[in-house]
Specification:
The complex is a heteropentamer. Chain A is of the alpha/beta class. Chain A contains 12 helices and 13 strands. Chain B has one domain. Chain B contains 11 helices and 2 strands, in the order H-H-H-H-E-E-H-H-H-H-H-H-H. In chain B, strand 1 and strand 2 form a beta hairpin. By secondary structure, chain C is α/β, with parallel strands linked by helices. Chain C contains 9 helices and 10 strands. In chain C, the strands form 2 sheets. In chain C, strands 6-7-8-3-9-10 form a 6-stranded mixed β-sheet, with helices on both faces. In chain C, a hairpin with a 2-residue loop joins strand 1 and strand 2. Chain C is globular, with a radius of gyration of 18 Å. Chain C starts with a strand and ends with a helix. Classes of the chains: A alpha/beta, B mainly alpha, C alpha/beta, D mainly alpha, E alpha/beta. The interface between A and B is large, with 41 and 50 residues. The structure holds adenosine-5'-triphosphate (2 copies) and magnesium ion (2 copies). One adenosine-5'-triphosphate sits at the interface of chains E and C.
Chain lengths: ~350, ~300, ~250, ~325, ~230
């Protein structure tokens, strides 16, 4: 870096439910920027509450006078914070949430998503279902916006029949009813999006039920942090992700080993996203000062850094164009982890580019 | 939809009912019988599940971890009772709500501090893995049958303990007038400690049993907390029978509602909307049920109306 | 004499227990009418029915010619009923004054008044002072009821009843637990009140009943078996057997 | 000797001047926090009316907070986007005029309180706690799964509503609006509590049979208190949405109801200024400890437990007791 | 009289928070005696009982039961030593049935359910009725029955015949006489009456929390009676 100083405000979930994700994003990000003396990071815990997040954003902008905001995990919190922040002339780099509203009509020149548009992994799952030859799929997700986006994303690419489509209660942990419906539906495959504890419960109970129909899902229920808790029930399941520990490129190898050295655990998807966000920021700082907004924006847009995912660039609405891989859950010794088996969608962008007037 | 599926879902409802009873059994004792509003019930549930998971990670034995779940929860329960809870019996409901709410904050953060933010692993033992065919075409998970079995045993145990022994009478008397029952020669503090311990143990056991097929994570106790209260209130405070029947009722209504409402709605609107409206109603269902029951019977199904 | 309250063919069962078995009965102006009878005869139940706290199975309750059988408790109080409870039931956290004020507020329907202060003169009027003087509690008016002795609480109950400005008062064992000096005081109060408002008095203390009641009715197993003056009742054999014993 | 009155005035004046100083020293975030404290305390004052004075432990006051928020948010977003809100019996596309928004909030929250109260007040004690919770949960799940206004995501209203041309986006101005509301609400509750209605309300809390036996219908008294309480909490919800320029179902969550109760009890139950002190303490604690450790909730738990066990009258009660013994 | 001392109160002081109520109460009961405690309302009779039973802890003085010091002991321990209480205001367990009230705290001995039913036949058909539905007098009987079922060696009745009809009162007096003949001691508070005079072996009068008179009730002077009892 050539001495451009910059202050980052990170608002993420560090306490209460779902804090594992926030902690990973933070750790990944800090790993990326730890060697840079020009970046000052302020971290605050949003407790997964939108109102708190909004107030923290105010604080970061008004009192801390940060230049760049980042860190939010959840779409609903992002929706609460991002529009206000970018309208006040701050940059926002999303390390995780990518709600469609911010990709389409609500896109903004100062908003960059480094992870994915919310639909991406589900779209890839739809594509994978096609290429595997599934004809009759049963799909389910919780009844809330991200859940609906998930099923919409899947259906956008899936060409077969739907054996059933279920919205479950948010936070539901018992799936006997749904599993019975799956069994009765003659489906040849199941796609589900059930983040957090919901997915753990579903996978365990599904494995218990003795149904042999293959399952596909986005990486969220099969990622490093959570796999341990799902246990052997997850073995062999195909899931879609833009990143995997075994991606063969230099940046990723360095990231995985650095992360393990630093924190003593395997990195997760979220950690990689946090890390890439940090790397993107450093790459932009090398090119321009944040005080020159135009130049800095261009620097961000060029995404001139070695992503842990290999190929990485931004589409016109500032969301990644990247490969989405299909991974399989395997066992390495005693540890459950993922291995890439194919590329689900190549150089995949998102469905909202046209709606964005940028 | 086939008749078999309907029957199977009905059975699932009953099964879910047993699970609910298991979740609320500890609270039935502490809240229903001792009259203490214990919001920390969910925390004891969580403590049970985490002790089980920790034990499992160490000894790799399901049965040992069950043992750990209720002993740890009982120990924590007794410590909490002796240091904090016993000062609350003579206070009004509000103080109880507040202190036990604080206990939730305390335990959730403490557990997260100790075990980290990620879910832990707990799985069904080999013996109970897989499912068996109970009718032609209807398969049932062995583990779920096991949960039903445990639920039944606990129901019988509680029913006898509270309804048929002097101990139960004394505890209920103490709920009405502690000073008086004590003046009649009953060591009510010890009884309450004991009972709180048993309630905590039941919560812990439920945490481990149910955590095994759901997920063991911080915050797992919160949704079940409200559910457990709903059940006891629907059943009528103080009635074991009420809690039992309410569990089954809620289980069946919730299950069938979630399954049937979207299906019925499909006849009037397109499947996708039907599904999303249906599940919106479905998630409100047990609260609607509770409100209706309380409006019709302000002291729950089997609650006593004191004059 | 004027019949203020008339009870006609009143019936009430609790499952197998008959609490009121075809009761006919009236209360007249200027009298203290005592209602006596064995424990569980149905005396308190009768009062509760008169007040509308529980509903009779059949029969009529008539106040000054108005059939109030189906009126709510609230409405009956506004028509002029007041009662005391068998087991003292004042508001322990309120002062004596507040307890009496509450009755006034209730009677005058001032409870929808959100704006005036209760300390204002309108509410601590002469009338309240006279009631408190009558029941001998004026000096202690700021004392919380929780600090009163049993006897004083009983006096307060009477004060609350008086504050309702009643047409008639129903007293359920007002003397229970009072020491003799207090009993004398109560007797004096009742004799004073009865000229303004008639009293229906339930009491097990026969000395009191025989000395102040103008008329006595005897309730046994939900049925009135005798009615008359003190001397008539004292000598009635049925009454002696069922209630008085050898006393 | 320090009296409850003095503590109250000191806290009010204190908050006011801290806000002025924050402006002077350019600490806008502090002003946001103060506004938040005030809004929370208004919500809790509303609850305190039924809980502290009527012993009706409503565990569902987030319903009114949230409804107030949604009503305001919906009016504002329609006005912002110039979208029709209703087309019959007249055309109406929302409003971003605070006065109109507040009127609607009061109207809707009162109606909801009337409905919830009419059903809930048939029960008592723990049943009441649970049935109020049930109604709030119904609204919560409805808000989460109903797509029109963002479902779980909620929605942004971008700008605050306007009042007499004041620049409400400026923190201090918005603080003054909240502060003004606080004064009004404190005045109203102070009046109500000391009125004949207030006495009757307190009596319903202590002894129902006695209340009935002096010709007062406790149900009506409690229902009226409940409606008033709901409207006040609704106003708080409306202000909160304006503060954050964002509406979401988390306004309706049971944790929110729980926090209101916490404010009241920490401050001092059944004291008019209790919620203000409680909310101030809570927010300050969250900020202070939150910046030291992620695990600040452990300490919050400990503090709450100690308050209940050892300082029965909450903070105000504790100060009064302490001064008395000095 | 050289029967052994069952209960001895020596200069007892008790208070409710800051309200000082007992200022030196002295009282003795021997085995098989019926002792009455009298005084006008609010003089501290019930407070004395609470102090004996350990519901209230005296802050000065000494209470001995069968030569064991019980001052400051937990109330359940005192009860287990053999003190049975019929409290002022009945305090039955309203959420329990009649039967549960009776057997909940019972201890095996002479008095059992059958004997109580023989004493109060009214309970026979009401064993499973919720006790809160009983009439006032019935509740008083229940409270007496409940205390008897603990088979105490000292029975304490606060307002023994409050709310009881004359017939039942007589019955109670007879029972008390019989019980005391069996060697059980009785401490009784009641309004002064002929029966009380007849049954009590010894009486104490309290005035403002202090024992001011003791002796045989039939021998009290008219002046003392006026002064302390108001008659
Ligand atoms: N709610 C009820 N359910 C069942 N039985 C009841 C109920 N209320 C009263 N009873 C019974 O009805 C009878 C009459 O009761 P009530 O209270 O009127 O008696 P009472 O004449 O006032 O007696 P006491 O002099 O003892 O107060 C009693 O036997 C009582 O047990
Ligand atoms: N819980 C209490 N708190 C404060 N003061 C009390 C309490 N209970 C009783 N007192 C006061 O103590 C004094 C003695 O009360 P106590 O009940 O012992 O009187 P008593 O002799 O039994 O009278 P009574 O014949 O009316 O029952 C009374 O002045 C009363 O006001
Ligand atoms: Mg009676
Ligand atoms: Mg007494």
């Amino acid at each position: 870096a050539d001495g451009h100083k910059l202050k980052v405000g990170m608002i993420t979930t560090l306490s209460g439910g779902g804090s594992g994700l926030g902690i990973d994003v933070r750790d990944g990000f800090m790993l990326a920027v730890r060697s840079s003396k020009d970046i000052e990071v302020v971290i605050e815990d949003d407790q997964r509450k939108p109102d708190i997040a909004v107030q923290l954003a105010d604080k970061m902008i008004q009192s801390e006078k940060v230049d760049v905001l980042t860190g939010i995990i959840w779409s609903n919190l992002a929706m609460a914070v991002v529009p206000a922040a970018v309208n006040q002339g701050k940059f926002y780099l999303s390390p995780n949430a990518g709600p469609s509203a911010l990709a389409g009509k609500g896109c903004h020149e100062n908003y960059f998503n480094v992870a994915w548009q919310n639909d991406n992994l589900h779209e890839a799952a739809g594509g994978h279902a096609n290429s595997t030859g599934f004809k009759n799929t049963f799909i389910l997700a919780p009844n809330y916006p991200a859940g609906k986006d998930a099923l919409t994303g899947f259906k956008r690419y899936f060409k077969g029949n739907l054996a059933g489509e279920i919205y479950t209660k948010l936070g539901q942990t018992d799936y006997a009813v749904e599993i019975a419906q799956i069994r009765a539906s003659n489906a040849d495959s199941v796609f589900f999006f059930l983040p957090g504890g919901m997915g753990i419960g579903f996978m365990k109970q599904y494995a218990q039920s003795g149904i042999e129909i293959p399952v596909v899902g986005p990486a969220f229920s099969f990622d490093q942090g959570i796999l341990k808790a799902v246990g052997d029930a997850a073995l062999g399941v195909k899931n879609t992700s833009q990143w995997s520990k075994d991606l063969d490129n230099k940046a990723n190898k360095k990231f995985v080993s650095d992360f393990q050295n630093e924190y003593g655990r395997l990195p997760s998807l979220y950690a990689s996203q946090g890390y890439d966000t940090g790397r993107l920021l450093i790459s932009a700082m090398a090119k321009a000062s944040v005080n020159d907004m135009e130049a800095f924006r261009d620097a961000l847009r060029s995404a001139d850094f070695d992503s842990t995912r290999g190929q990485f660039r931004f589409s016109s609405n500032h969301h990644p164009i990247q490969n989405i891989y299909v991974r399989e859950v395997i066992k390495e010794g005693d540890t459950l982890t993922n291995k890439i088996v194919s590329v689900g969608l190549k150089d995949h962008s998102n469905a909202y580019v046209d709606q964005c007037s940028m | 939809m086939t008749a078999e599926l309907l029957i199977e879902q009905f059975l699932n409802g009953l099964q879910f009912g047993f699970m609910l009873f298991l979740m609320s059994a500890g609270l039935t004792l502490i809240f229903g019988v001792m009259g203490l509003i214990n919001l920390a019930h969910g925390s004891l549930y969580m403590i049970g599940a985490f002790s089980a998971a920790a034990t499992f990670a160490f000894f790799n034995s399901f049965w040992l971890s069950l043992l750990a779940s209720f002993s740890c929860a009982a120990i924590v329960g007794i410590i909490v009772e002796k240091t904090i809870i016993r000062k609350l019996y003579n206070r009004d409901h509000l103080d109880q709500v507040l202190v036990t709410f604080a206990l939730i904050l305390f335990f959730s953060e403490l557990v997260r501090w100790i075990f980290g933010a990620f879910p832990l692993y707990l799985d069904v033992p080999e013996l109970l893995n897989g499912s068996i065919e109970i009718f032609s075409g209807i398969y049932y998970s062995k583990y779920r049958l096991f949960i039903i079995f445990v639920g039944l045993i606990i129901a019988i145990f509680l029913f006898f303990l509270i309804g048929k022994t002097n101990l139960g009478i004394q505890i209920r008397a103490g709920q009405h007038d502690r000073e008086m029952i004590s003046a009649l020669g009953v060591d009510i503090s010890k009884l309450y400690t004991l009972l709180f311990g048993v309630g905590a143990a039941l919560a812990g056991l439920a945490g481990a049993l149910i955590g095994t097929i759901q997920s063991v994570e911080v915050g797992m106790g919160e949704p079940i907390l409200i559910l457990a209260f709903v059940i006891i209130v629907i059943g009528g405070i103080g009635s074991i029978k009420g809690a039992f029947i309410a569990s089954l009722l809620v289980g069946v209504v919730d299950t069938l509602g979630r399954f049937l409402i979207p299906w019925v709605l499909q006849t009037v609107t397109n499947p996708s909307d039907a599904m999303s409206i249906g599940s919106a109603i479905g998630s409100m269902l047990i609260y609607i049920l509770m409100a209706i029951i309380l409006i019709l019977k302000p002291t729950g199904l089997y609650g006593k109306q004191l004059s | 004499m004027n019949k203020i309250l008339k009870i006609v063919n009143l019936k009430k069962n609790f499952g197998a227990i008959t609490a009121s078995n075809d009761i006919n009965f009236c209360l007249e102006t200027g009298e203290i009418h005592a209602l006596i009878g064995p424990n569980g005869a149905g005396k308190s139940t009768l009062i509760k029915q008169i007040m509308g706290e529980i509903k009779q199975d059949s029969g009529e309750i008539v106040l000054s010619g108005i059939n109030i059988s189906n009126f709510k408790t609230e409405d009956r109080i506004h028509l002029g009923f007041a009662r005391s409870f068998q087991i003292t039931d004042v508001i322990l956290d309120f002062t004596i004054l507040q307890n009496v004020l509450l009755a006034k507020i209730g009677k005058q329907k001032k409870y929808y008044n959100f704006y005036s202060s209760i300390e204002s003169s309108e509410f601590s009027s002469e009338e309240i002072k006279s009631i408190l003087l009558k029941i001998d509690l004026w000096d202690k008016k700021e004392t919380p009821a929780s600090l009163l002795s049993h006897g004083e609480r009983r006096q307060l109950e009477i004060g609350i009843a008086l504050a309702l400005d009643p047409q008639l008062i129903l007293l359920d064992e007002p003397m229970a637990g009072l020491s003799l000096d207090k009993i004398e005081k109560m007797k004096f109060i009742f004799n004073q009140i009865k000229n303004e408002v008639p009293i229906l008095l339930i009491e097990h203390n026969m000395d009191v009943v025989f000395s102040i009641a103008n008329r006595i009715s005897v309730l046994v197993n939900g049925k009135i078996i005798a009615s008359g003056t003190s001397s008539e009742i004292k000598t009635n054999l049925d009454v002696r057997k069922a209630y008085l014993g050898t006393a | 000797m320090i009296s409850e009155k003095k503590i109250s005035y000191i806290s009010l004046i204190g908050i006011f001047f801290i806000a002025i100083f924050s402006e002077y020293f350019d600490e806008p975030y502090l002003i946001t926090l103060l506004s938040r404290i005030i809004i929370f305390s208004i919500a809790a004052i509303g609850l305190n009316l039924v809980l502290g004075f009527g012993n009706l432990v409503s565990f569902g006051h987030a319903a009114f907070f949230g409804l107030g928020g949604y009503v305001s948010g919906i009016l504002a977003i329609h006005a912002f986007n110039s979208e029709l809100l209703i087309s019959w019996p007249f055309l109406f596309s929302g409003s971003n005029n605070s006065i109109i928004i507040w009127l609607f909030t009061i109207l809707f929250c009162s109606l909801l309180a009337l409905l919830v109260g009419a059903f809930s007040l048939r029960t008592s004690g723990v049943y009441f706690i649970m049935i109020t919770l049930a109604f709030a949960q119904m609204l919560y799940y409805f808000a989460i799964s109903w797509p029109s206004y963002g479902g779980e995501d909620g929605f942004s209203i971008y700008v605050r509503s306007t009042l007499f041309g004041i620049n409400t986006m400026k923190g201090l101005n918005f603080f003054f609006i909240c502060f003004f509301w606080l004064l009004i609400i404190l005045f109203i509750t102070g009046k109500v509590v000391n009125s004949p209605f207030g006495l009757a309300l307190r009596a319903t809390r202590l002894n129902l049979t006695r209340v009935k036996s002096v010709g007062i219908n406790p149900f009506r008294i409690q229902l009226m208190a409940f409606v008033l309480s709901g409207a006040i909490t609704g106003i708080a919800g409306s202000l909160y949405v304006d503060l954050n320029r964002f509406v979401s179902p988390s306004l309706l969550s049971w944790q929110m109801s729980g926090e209101f109760i916490v404010f009241i009890l920490i401050g001092g139950l059944g004291r008019i200024y209790g919620p203000l002190i409680g909310a101030a303490f809570f927010v300050a604690f969250e900020q202070f400890f939150g910046s030291y450790t992620e695990h600040w909730q452990i300490f919050l738990g400990i503090i709450i437990i100690s308050t209940v066990l050892f300082a029965k009258g909450g903070i105000i009660g504790f100060i009064l007791e302490y001064k008395k013994n000095e | 009289m050289n029967k052994s001392l069952i209960l001895k109160l020596d200069n007892i002081y008790s208070s409710y928070g800051n309200v000082q109520v007992l200022n030196g109460v002295n009282l003795q009961i021997r085995k098989g005696e019926i002792v009455s405690l009298l005084g006008r309302n609010g003089m501290g009779k019930s407070t004395t009982i609470k102090s004996i039973c350990g519901i209230l802890k005296p802050h000065f003085g000494r209470i001995e039961f069968n030569n064991v010091k019980i001052t400051g002991m937990e109330s359940y321990k005192i009860a287990r030593l053999g003190v049975g209480l019929v409290p002022e205001g009945r305090r039955i367990f309203a959420n329990l049935t009649v039967k549960e009230n009776l057997i909940g705290s019972s201890i095996k001995g002479y008095w059992d359910l059958d004997k109580i039913i023989t004493l109060f036949p009214i309970f026979e058909e009401r064993l499973s009725q919720l006790s809160s539905n009983l009439s006032g007098g019935e509740q008083q009987m229940l409270a007496i029955g409940r205390a008897l079922m603990t088979n105490p060696s000292l029975l304490i009745l606060d307002e023994a015949t409050e709310g009881l009809s004359p017939v039942i009162s007589q019955k109670i007096w007879n029972v008390l006489k019989k019980v005391s003949n069996e060697g059980i001691s009785i401490l009784i508070i009641d309004k002064i009456s002929q029966e009380l005079k007849n049954v009590s072996n010894h009486s104490y009068i309290l005035e403002r929390g202090k024992s001011v008179w003791s002796g045989k009730l039939s021998e009290i002077s008219i002046d003392d009676s006026k002064l302390f009892l108001g008659v």
